[in-house]
Amino acid sequence: MKYIKSYILFFLMVFAVTGCTTDDLKDDVNDLKDRVALIEEQVKLLNDNLAVIAYILDTQNKTISEVKNVTDNGEVTQKKIVLSDGTELTLTIGKPGTINEPEVTVGEDKMWYINGEPTGVIAVGEPGKNGEGYPEFRVQDGNWQVRFGDGDWKPVTGGGSVVGGSLGDQFFVKAEVVGDNFVVTMTDGTVHTLPIVADLACAIDKTSIGLDAEGFWVIEKDTRVEVLVKITGENPQVTYPQGWRATLSELDVADDKGNNYKLYIYAPVATVKAVNTRAAANNTSDITVQVQKGSLWAVDKIKVKTPKELNTNEERYNDGQTIRVGGLEITRELYGDVKAVPADGKLTEGGVYFISENGKELACGFEDGVQNLIILPNTEEVTEIKLGIGQKVTFTGTFVCQNVIFNCTIKDYPLWVQGADKNVVFDKCQINGLIATKGLLVSITDKNVDGTDNLNRFEMSESKVEIKEAGTNLYLINTLSCKTLKFDNNIVYYSGTPSQDNNLENFKVFNGKDNHRIDDLVVTRNTFIDIESSYTGNNIGLFYPKTLGTAVVDNNIYYFSSYREYTAFLIRVASPDGMTLVSSVDNYAYVGDSSLNFNVFQNKVDNKTISFTSKDIDLFDTENTETFDKSTGTFIPKDEYKAYGAQR
Q1: Do strands 346-347 and 361-364 pair parallel, antiparallel, or not at all (unpaired)?
Q2: Strand, coil or helix: 40
């Protein structure tokens, strides 16, 4: 029994020791947390008060609209200062503390000094020249660091590491509202009296504007933009840099933020060359709005510039600018670094390629699938890029081509989609070599009934699709749902001579009757030549989704030069309930001697039909090879119909 008692006492001692060690550790952790929180609070206090100091030293024609008290247990501990441009500053009324922080002063040369060391940055504004900002501090690895504006963080010299203690303030002794003034007394005895003007305000609403890293609003040349402004006072004015223009227009009703003016900014047609001096820098970039009350002015500014003058798409892309192809934005942030074009033109990896040689011949040599494949001309001089596709290209991201001639030699679909919400854009392209029973784009999953593979956006614009071989069942898009499908200003044609034994039947731009939808469809300014969308008595449309959300179908031409076998439609919806027809105007068809009907829609979502020309009035002059030539894909309607179909 005594051995058992000994063991019990032993374990109790162990637990007691362990408990003490754990408690001590918790205390140490809590102390560390407290010290970190205290230092963070001191950093915030220092930076907030420096912002107030910077305003006092250089108001830049911003007046005080309001001063609010912040109390803690009935004691006023802070002042919230609201400026005329909407900026809010926080002044903490402090007392000397013991935390080791940098000493910040302004020298007789009106420069900022930190721990007695000059920074070379102007603190005090002068007529015609503003101050150059104020220091911002942080603590990194136990040491103070400082920066001005968006500059780099640098170690603070002349002081030791951060140590704990009590919060303190090195600037203010007292801050109070006296009549219509805000009176601030500094630790060196200096008193600053700042007027409070409640009904003087000038604030540009920058919340809806995307500014670059340097705080500029980058505006394309020769464009107009607008932004809301809150103005209270008299005689509002706006000034702008040379080459720019800006105007103010008062609104009938202010919005819920109090914005009651609209500022219109007109960017110059040509690039404005800035003066490369610090003193003049503001004059070359600032749009300034100001309003007056008596002798006081309230001012707000926004910096503007046009994009850099870069000569190639690759330079713009590397600069961080957006390359827009159709409705898709191509940026380095989204798609990564540019890929070098191999000397032999064989592409073995995905990515973004900019082609600088007109007529450059490329070939797909992908062993596996690619995430993104984007092929773009580098300059306007590159109007033709040749891409040979002799194998399946499976992509899991985005496929975009501009000014590309596709020569498909594969006896299958050349492009395969894997995954959800993919993007495909063809702009100013030509597609050759597609074969019947296949097509252009298909899901990697057989029939894709569950919709795992689908498109966020498919867009083909200003492009040509030539079908040389007769046959049945050829689909540009097969077994893929699509949120946005835009088919604009394209020519799709069968280059053979249609006959009963030599015809192209059941051609679809979109085939998805089983379980594949289109949310938003735009079919505008297209020319379809000798393309039949039906076969063996099945009257089907060129676009055949199971369901369709909204549709715009305008200014299309559907044309048969000779033989035609079936009634046809531009669009057939397997389940038309819920569809909204936004527009369907100025669509023309020519069917020669045929009495077969041709409508915009089947399944009676509306009663609008294509406008038929009579059999004696042809849309084209087929005897003139300069305006109608299948060997070159030239199809220019007669003068009275030139506004319809593809515009070339």
Answers
A1: parallel
A2: helix
Distance CA 281, CA 301 (A): 13
Nearest to 362 by CA among 370, 373, 371, 372: 373
Scanning 244-312, the segments in alpha helix (DSSP H) are: 278-281
Token representation of residue 130? 């503003």
Residue located via tokens 């220019």: 636
Q: Considering only the C-alpha atoms of the chain, give the largest distance between any 2 of them, rounded to a whole number of Å.
A: 122
Cα dihedral 241/131/43/100 (nearest 10):
160
Q: Are 426 and 461 in contact (CB under 8 A)?
A: yes
Would you state the pLDDT for residue 22?
41
The reported pLDDT for the residue numbered 133 is 77
Nearest 10 degrees: Cα torsion 625, 630, 632, 636:
60
Straight-line distance from the first to the last Cα atom of the chain, in angstroms, rounded to the nearest whole number: 106
Are the beta carbons of 477 and 448 closer than 8 angstroms?
no
Tokens linked to 46: 């220092």
Measured distance CA(628)–CA(352) in Å, rounded: 37
Whole-angstrom distance, CA of residue 114 vs CA of residue 157: 8
Confidence band of 164 (pLDDT split at 50, 70, 90): low
Q: Would you call 296 exposed, middle or buried from its count of C-beta atoms within 10 A (0-12, 13-18, 19+)?
A: middle
Beta bridge partners of 488: 461, 524
Mean pLDDT along residues 510-535: 91
CA proximity to 460, closest of 409, 401, 420: 401
Give the ranges where 181-338 is alpha helix by DSSP (H): 278-281, 313-318, 332-335
Q: Give backbone dihedrals phi and psi of 25, rounded to 5 degrees, phi first.
A: -65, -45
Task: Give backbone dihedrals phi and psi of 50, rounded to 5 degrees, phi first.
Answer: -65, -35
Pick from 196, 166, 171, 175: which is nearest to 77 by CA?
Answer: 175
Q: What is the DSSP string of 314-377?
A: HHHHHTT--EEETTEEE-HHHH-SBPPPPTT-EE-S-EEEEE-STT-EEEE--SS-BS-EEEEE
Amino acid at position 40, single letter: E
What pTM did the predictor assign?
0.60
Query: pLDDT band at residue 107, thresholds of 50, 70 and 90?
Result: confident
Helix (H) or strand (E) holding 122: strand 117-122
Cβ-contact 396, 369 below 8 angstroms = yes
CA–CA distance, 23 with 14 (Å, rounded to integer) = 14
Q: How many residues does the chain have?
A: 648
Q: What is the DSSP letter of 594?
A: -
Q: Find the angle CA(502)-CA(430)-CA(522) to the nearest 5 degrees.
A: 90
